[in-house]
Design a protein that fits this description.
By secondary structure, the chain is α/β, with parallel strands linked by helices. The protein contains 18 helices and 14 strands. Helix 3 packs parallel to helix 4, helix 5 crosses helix 6 and helix 11 runs parallel beside helix 12. The chain is globular and about 65 Å long.
Length: 427
């Protein structure tokens, strides 16, 4: 074991008691964190009676799991004589995988990066190839894969400037991880350049898998049903995937608007969908504190005329929300969280507004703005102002929506390139 990895493992061992405390703390609000706890330490039960070779794909949470969908479908189609294991780190990621793929794939938690746990995981499943999505560099896991001669690929890889600076603080350990990968498929040239500067050698640019996700027909139909509940003739502004701190800013800006009945003002409906389900009740309290009339999506009833906000307290319906709105703001971008996936609303043909902080989707954001599919705002007040202007201008909304569809179509193909990269490792 190299000295950097030895020090890393020593620190990890010291933190072991905190791991249990963290799981217990998270379990207070999300009891799912207390389920399958043994898997987080490499105990995954007895082997199933299935001798087919196994391909392993790791998608840490919801966003990565949804991004993996076209790749999972391609693997299932091209390698029907293989099993597919999908691992996660969060309960919401696991739930999303179950919703998307059902029993067609096996699911489990990836163990924490302790040598005993990752070795046990690899011995238990014995995959013939592994794929890590986006930015998952686990030193002991990568080293164990090397020792087992298991080809491990980092695909749909992205690395923001902020993340690159963080990894650069540990140059020897980071370089050791990157050199231990069989291949790296970066989303963009900028991602590839940053990864290469940190030590990646076998890398290519394959594009972003999220462009390959078509709007599901079932979700488009669900969008029509939601729009009927919202009101066919009432303009709808969607505030999607908002993060902690953003809702307060957005609700403050909304509360400053004149009453909807005032002449010249559109009585638009705001649909607010927090990124994380454990925060639904927190956002409900914010609405109560401000006295804003609202209705929960979960009641599944037509929205009352007096309601100004719908709280999107449901999971797995984001495409439907996009299909049901007239203008969409993609959250995580007003505050420095890095932004969320703006490709989905573009592919549905919805005009998109984004904040100043989109480093997680830097190239996609710039390309969408350049294509006329999205516009940036600096503040919550500017967001509401621009949204009102768009809601009052159907021709401009149509032009932005068509530009979004063309933008999404133009950048597809990452699945095909990643599959071509993977084939040599699967014979």
């Amino acid at each position: 074991m190299s000295l950097p990895r030895l020090l890393y493992t020593f620190v990890l061992a010291l933190l072991l008691p905190l791991v249990f405390l963290r799981l217990a703390w998270r379990g207070r609000r999300q009891p799912e964190y207390l389920r399958h706890m043994a898997e987080r330490f490499g105990f995954h039960g007895a082997n199933r009676a299935d001798s087919r070779p196994l391909i392993w794909l790791h998608a840490v949470s919801v966003g990565e799991t949804r991004a993996a969908a076209p790749l999972v479908e391609a693997l299932l189609q091209e390698y029907p004589d293989h099993r597919l294991l999908l691992t996660h780190m969060t309960p919401t990621g696991r739930a999303t995988g179950r919703e998307l793929f059902g029993e067609r794939v096996r699911q489990a938690y990836l163990p924490y990066d302790y040598p005993f746990a990752v070795r046990r995981f690899l011995l238990r499943f014995r995959p013939v190839a592994g794929l890590l999505l986006e930015t998952e560099l686990w030193p002991n896991l990568i080293a164990a894969c090397q020792e087992s001669r298991l080809p491990l690929l980092l695909v749909n890889a992205r690395l923001s400037e902020k993340s690159a600076r963080r990894y650069a603080r540990f140059p020897r350990l980071t370089a050791e991880c990157l050199k231990g990968l069989a291949a790296v498929a970066a989303q963009t040239e900028a991602d590839a350049t940053r990864l290469a500067a940190l030590g990646a050698s076998a890398y290519t640019v394959a594009g972003n898998l999220k462009f390959d996700i078509p709007p599901p027909a079932a979700m488009l139909q669900k969008g029509k049903e939601l729009r009927a509940l919202f009101g066919e003739n009432r303009p709808v502004l969607l505030l999607a995937s908002t993060r902690d701190g953003e809702e307060a800013m957005l609700l403050e800006a909304l509360s400053k608007l004149p009453p909807p009945a005032e002449e010249g003002k559109r009585n638009f409906l705001t649909v607010l969908v927090p990124r994380h389900p454990q925060r639904f009740d927190d956002v409900a309290r914010l609405l109560d504190e401000r006295g804003i009339p609202y209705q929960r999506r979960s009641v599944n009833q037509p929205v009352a005329a007096g309601a100004r906000v719908v709280l999107g307290d449901s999971m797995g319906e984001m495409f439907a929300y996009y299909a049901a709105c007239d203008v969409a703001f993609v959250g995580g971008s007003l505050l420095p969280f890095g932004g969320q996936n703006l490709i989905e609303p573009c592919s549905v043909g919805v005009p998109v507004l984004i904040g100043p902080h989109t480093f997680n989707f830097a190239q996609a954001s710039e390309l969408a703005v350049a294509a006329g599919a999205a516009e940036r705002v600096a503040t919550a007040e500017e967001l509401i102002e621009k949204a009102e202007a768009l809601l009052a201008d159907p021709a401009r909304r149509t032009a932005m929506g068509e530009a979004g569809k063309a933008f999404a179509e133009r950048h597809r193909g990452a699945t095909r390139r990643i599959m071509a990269l993977l084939r040599p490792f699967l014979g």
